[in-house]
Amino acid sequence: xxxxxxxxxxxxxxxxxxxxxxxxxxxxxxxxxxxxxxxxxxxxxxxxxxxxxxxxxxxxxxxxxxxxxxxxxxxxxxxxxxxxxxxxxxxxxxxxxxxxxxxxxxxxxxxxxxxxxxxxxxxxxxxxxxxxxxxxxxxxxxxxxxxxxxxxxxxxxxxxxxxxxxxxxxxxx
Amino acid sequence: xxxxxxxxxxxxxxxxxxxxxxxxxxxxxxxxxxxxxxxxxxxxxxxxxxxxxxxxxxxxxxxxxxxxxxxxxxxxxxxxxxxxxxxxxxxxxxxxxxx
Lengths: 173, 99
Known about the structure:
heterodimer; A: 173 residues; mainly alpha; Four Helix Bundle (Hemerythrin (Met), subunit A); B: 99 residues; 3 helices; 0% strand; elongated
C-alpha cells in the first residue's frame, strides 16, 4: 500500500517537474508546478510530515503560486521558442545534469549510512510531524530562527514594493 | 519504503530543475525551476528527518519554505521591474553584468 502511494506520488511529482521544464507557455509551467507540489505533499505524508504537507499545499501551491500566476499573466505569455538557448548550452546542460544525478546517486547509495536501506527508525515520538510537535520545537528550541524568518519576510515584502512599485518622482517634481 | 527511494526521487527532481535552469531563458520559468530544486532539497531533508526520527529536519524545511517565499517575492519583483522598463524578458539578452 505504501509502495503504491509512493510510486503514484513519485510519478506525479516527476511528471509535473518535467512539464514545468518542457511546457512553452510560462502560465502552463506554473500550473504544472502546482500539480508537482500537490503530489510532493502526498509523499511528505508518507514521511510522516503532516504539518509540512499541509503547509506545502497552503503556502506553496496556494499563496506562492498565486503570485506566479499573477506575474505570468501580467508579463504575458511569451512563447519562447522551444529550447532555443545557445546551442552549446543545449547540449552541455543535460549532460551536466545527468552527470550531477549520477554523482548524487553514487554519493547516496555508496554511503556507509546503513539506515538508508531501512524504513527509518521505529522510535518515533508521539507528536512527530504534527502541528503540535513542530510548533513546540519551533517556539522553544528554534525561536531565533523563527524570528529571523519573520524579519526576512518583512524585508522581502519591502524589497518587492521597492523593486516593482511605480516611480513617484515625476509626480513629486 | 526504504529511505533511499526518497533520496533518489529527490535527486531526480533536483536534476530536472537543474536542466530547466540551464536550458530555459524566461526568468519566470527559471524561478519555477529553482522552486523545483528547493522542493527536492526539502524532500531529502524530510527523508533524513524520518530516518533519524528527529523533527529538526522538518523545522529546516519550514525555514526553507520561508526563504523560498522571500526569493519568489524578490525574483518576481525583478521580473516586473524588467517588464516595466521594456527590457527583454530573456536572460540571454540581459548581459550588462557580463564580465
